Amino acid sequence: MSHPLFTPEITLMLAEANAAGLREFCESLHPATVAEALDSEFTPEQIWEVISHANIRTQASIFEYIPPALQVEMAEKARPQMGQLLTKMSHDDRVDLLKRLPGRVAESVMRLVDEADRKDIATLFSYGENTVGAMMTTDYAWLPATATAAEAIDQLRAQAPDKETIYYVYVLDDASRRSDGSLAPRRLLGVISLRDLILAPRHALVRELMETDLATLRYDQDKDAVAQLFARYDFIAAPVVDDSFGLLGIVTHDDVLDLVQREATADLQRQAGVGPITGTYLDASFWMVWKSRAFWLGALFVLQMGTINVMAHFESDLERVAYLMVFVPLCLSVGGNAGSQAATLVIRALALEEIRTRDWLLVFRRELLMAAALAAGLGVLSIVRTYFFTPESVLAKLPPGFFWNLNWAITFSVMGICLCGAVIGAMLPLAIKSFGQDPALMSTPFIATLSDVLGIIIFFNFVKLFFF
C-alpha cells in the first residue's frame, strides 16, 4: 500500500519534471519508505521516472523493497536500465528476481550484465530451491590472515560500498586450484567482527584476533536449518561452506526474517487446510486459492459424512431421546478445541526441535495426563451447566427420576470427547512427521473433523449407557 502523505507531492513533481525534488525524495528517505510511497498509486513507467533521478545504488536499494509482482512489471518495462540495476542489487535478491521473470525477459536482462555477474548469478541459480545455497549471497567481506588490524580496516573501507554487511568479516586462506584448473573457493579459517578490529592494536595480526570456533551452514542443507542456527546464536550473518570448508557465501539476518515470515504464513495456511498459497492474499491466483481450499473442504466433507453413518446406527435410540440433541454442539466443540490446542503445541515443539518423532511415548503420556486433568475440570463445569441451566423443554421430556442420568451422560461425554480430542491432537502431527510430511499439514481441520465423528460415537454410547 502506498504512503498517502507523499502521493500528492510525487504527482506534482512528476508533472513539473522536478528532477532535483525527485532526487532528494529518493535519496533522503529510507528505501523502504520510498518503495511504499510508490507502490500501487503509480505505474511502472512512473516509478522508473521517479527513481531514475537517484544514483544507481539508491535505485537498486529502492527496487529491492518494491513488491515482487511490481518488480516483474518494472523489469519488463525497462530492460536496459535493469542491467545496471542488477549489478548493484544484493546477489541473492537479484537471483530471486530473475527466477520470477518470464524466460525471454530474464535472458534479455542477463545479456546486459558483465561476465563476472553472469557467472555469480549462474552459480546461485544452480542450488536447490529449498536449500541454504539458494538463500545465500556472495557479496561478503573477507580478509587474509596475515593482515594487521590497521591494514584490515583499510581493506574493509575499500570493500564496504559493495558488500551487504561488513560487521562480520571472514578470514580466508590463499586461493587454490582444482584438478581441472578452476579456482576453488577460499577455505574459511575464522571470523572477526568489525568491533574487534577497531578495538585491536594497530599491528595485531588478524589470525591472532579471529574466532576459529565457527558455526557454519552447508550449501545443501534444508533452509529450515538457517532459522534454527540464527535463533540459537543470535547471528547477524552466517557463513555457508562446501565439503572442503570453502566459503561459498553468507546468509544474512534480513533473509532469515523473510524466511521465518514465509514459513509461519505457510504453516498457518496448512493448519487451516488452505495452502500453502504462493503470493499475497490479494495477488494470489483466484483459481489456485479456490483449488487449494476446495480440495481440503471436499476431503473433510467426505470424512464428515461418517457422522451420518454413526447417527444412522443410533437412529432407533435417537428417536426416543431426540430432546438430548440440544447437547450435541456443546459436547462436540470440546473435542475440536482440545485437539487444536494439543496439535498447536506439538507442531510448534517439532518445528523448534524440542521434541522428535521418537519421543512419541513421552508426548502421549504427558498429553494423556494433561487431557485427563482438563477433562476433569470440564466435567465439573458440565455438572454445573447441566444441573442449573438445563432448558425447561428438555426437563419436561425427561422420564421421571432421570435427571442425574442426564447429568452423568453429558458429563462423561464431555470428558471422553475432551480426552479423545487432546490425544488425537498430540499424536496426529507426530504421525504425519514420521511419514516425512509437514506436521502442520491438515492437522487442525482433520483433528476437528475426526473429533466430531468420534464425539458422536462417544456421546450416543454414554446416552445408551445411562438411558437404556
CATH superfamily of the largest domain: SLC41 divalent cation transporters, integral membrane domain
The strand count comes to: 8
Distance between the termini: 64 Å
In terms of quaternary structure, the protein is single chain
Q: Which strand-content bin applies to the residues?
A: 5-15%
Low-confidence spans: pLDDT under 50, at least 5 residues?
none
Strand pairing plus helix content: what structural class?
mainly alpha
Characterization of this structure:
The structure is a single chain. The protein has 468 residues and is mainly α. The protein folds into three domains: 7-126, MgtE N-terminal domain-like (MgtE N-terminal fold), CATH 1.25.60; 140-252, CBS-domain (Roll); 305-467, SLC41 divalent cation transporters, integral membrane domain (Tetracycline Repressor, domain 2). 64% of the residues lie in helices and 8% in strands. The protein is built from 24 helices and eight strands. The strands form three sheets. The protein has a three-stranded mixed β-sheet. Helix 20 (328-351) packs parallel to helix 23 and helix 21 runs antiparallel to helix 23. The chain starts with 6 loop residues before the first helix and ends with a helix. The mean pLDDT is 84.
